[in-house]
Design a protein that fits this description.
2 domains; three-stranded antiparallel β-sheet; 13 helices; Dehydroquinate synthase-like, alpha domain; seven-stranded mixed β-sheet; alpha/beta; homodimer
Chain lengths: 372, 372
């Protein structure tokens, strides 16, 4: 038997929920679910990478506690976050005759979590939702906070809802099956929490990152601190009217790079975009005389050490010119009345929301970093 | 110039909003919008019945107050409440580069309001939304309360979100262009507010319904009382956990009849389904010894007087057998753990939520009313 998992509570009034973090949680998922939810019907949504590894174990577990479950297996990959796949998922959930106490379960990474959460959020104007994130990125980021959605030809995550899960089960063992590249991509978000407002955590990561990659207690610790960090921000600002925007550190540049590479995961995955984006955000902060250039160098150095890309020229293939990247930034969500909102920093772990960044400065910075 | 419109305030904390009710409100829409919203870009969604009548006036008005607007015209009819039409509406809104203070405007009846509200609710996880309802049904029902959505092959309104508008403009003049059949269908919902908990209003309608149909002050009064009634219920129970379910009086039977006629508006429109459903709910209440049979007779008599259908055998074409209607009821939203929730009544204007109605009783009642 495994020890009790760690629990992080996301405090959101009558929508509060627990994140359980620890080894072996897929094996004990059904028991943990049955302890907390009354429902006896569930719909499990997963993808064709995750299904062969964990779907049978989950379905058998659910059956063993008397929960009648159906499942749907979607193609793995970012392109699945589309109306094309959302529609049959909604129909699967409706076909399973999920009632008010029943739940929809997302078994997979961020793509499956975002898509399934969106479907759960709109079926019957909101159905119960359980996340079983199987990637590091999903465990420390997308499974906390209730953001769900799909992509549009106009940009990433532009269509979706806020829909909080009822329970999150983060099994840290499953991360052993991730490719090093995928683990590193998730690690970018872990480092982000240090860079937002936890310089001590960033320093701990600089010393302990190899243990986090190896597994065991350091990994559980890093996942738990990350979930707690995100939970704290979300509890203070559920709908992203203010401080929640800090979580977008590195994301405005990152999203633009993802758009510029047409969400082609062979060239750039989300966490890699965030890694480059965080370095750019620190360099831009230094250029704006907000922070010492040493901070940007220290961030770049650590991310490089773990094997993450830290500059645009590491992205395989040709990037569009700076003007096109700028256009993608302007179409991003963080725009008010034509002015640009960026997350910048005053030092290590001193990020802040800057809502009056001149577009001209960003464009000339991009041109400098990425000459045509 | 017209007099100031009546205002009904929907009290929902930081999501409170005004419903303006009166003549000439489409002509003054842009002024009313500019008074209340800072946004300078809007996307107007309408249908091919409404567009020739009011779209130019609205667009010209918006231009005259400096609001840049795009528009999309959808086919009129219930079938438009589908993913097929939702997707291009989302893309239109995104293409218009609507920012946080801008808004999406629904110009049309319930179908346009429900679909557009859903699109506004999911674009950027929630965009500002203005309703300009052009049918009586939309003015007194769907434009108040924030329910949005589309239909699924599994049933009506099964996919959607709660998304409150920022402003509702109910122009009572536009109701003059409705067909008598469409006006009557909306009137069924007006009568419903009396039957829920306002016996005096129902009595007033019995005496004044002809004036309401004719237009003028009686119509404004009926629309305002209806909006206020719905606003009061919604303010007390936004997410339909309790008393809001009272608004479904007549709707469980009504939705089953709409499903049984494949949402074919030539056979049955929503308000007609509600009319028959309200009569059935009163008859069933009497059969369960909850209310006197005289109440059901009085309700039937008034609805018949205004020209609404009051029994299943008035629906043109063949209805499926009672068992199939029962199946549609069981798939409706108001189901908990297999038990049926119905809105029943103890007398005129004394509706209540009954959450333990035996399915067997409903089925034998349906067989009695609709022998195979």
């Amino acid at each position: 038997m495994t020890a009790s998992p760690r629990t992080v509570r996301v405090e959101l009034g009558d929508r509060s929920y627990d994140i359980l973090i620890g080894p072996g949680l897929i094996a004990s998922a059904a028991t943990e679910i049955a302890k907390r939810l009354k429902g006896r019907r569930m719909a499990v949504i997963t993808d064709n990478n995750v299904a062969p590894l964990y779907l049978d174990a989950l379905m058998d577990g659910l059956a063993s506690v008397g929960i009648e479950a159906v499942s749907a297996i979607l193609p793995a990959g970012e392109k699945t976050k589309s109306f094309e796949h959302l529609i049959p998922v909604c129909e699967t959930i409706l076909g399973a005759r999920i009632e008010r106490n029943d739940a929809v379960i997302a078994l997979g990474g961020g793509v499956i979590g975002d898509l399934t959460g969106f479907a759960a959020g709109i079926v019957r104007r909101g159905s119960r939702f359980i996340q079983i994130p199987t990637s590091l990125l999903a465990q420390v980021d997308s499974s906390v906070g209730g953001k769900t959605g799909i992509n549009s030809p106009h940009g990433k995550n532009l269509i979706g809802v806020f829909h909080q899960p009822d329970l999150v089960l983060a099994d840290t063992d499953v991360l052993d099956t991730l490719s090093p590249r995928e683990f590193r991509a998730g690690y970018a978000e872990v480092a982000k929490y240090g860079l937002i407002d936890k310089p001590d955590f960033f320093e701990w990561l600089e010393k302990n990152w190899q243990a986090v990659f190896a597994g065991g207690d350091a990994r559980i610790e890093a996942v738990a601190i990350s979930c707690q960090a995100k939970a704290d921000v979300v509890a203070a600002d559920e709908r992203e009217n203010g401080q929640r925007a800090l979580l977008n550190l590195g994301h405005t540049f990152g999203h633009a790079l993802e758009a510029a590479t047409a969400y082609d995961g062979t060239r750039l995955v989300h966490g890699e975009g965030v890694s480059i984006g965080m370095v750019l955000a620190h360099q831009f902060s230094s250029r704006m005389n907000l922070a010492s250039p040493d901070v940007a160098k220290r961030v770049e150095s650590h991310l490089k050490t773990v094997g993450l890309p830290t500059s645009m020229d590491e992205i395989p293939g040709t990037l569009p010119p700076a003007e096109v990247l700028m256009d993608a930034i302007a179409q991003d969500k963080k725009v008010k009345g034509g002015k640009l909102t960026f997350i910048l920093t005053r030092g290590l772990g001193e990020a802040f929301v800057a809502d009056d960044v001149p577009a001209s400065e960003v464009l000339s910075f991009l041109k400098e970093k990425h000459p045509a």
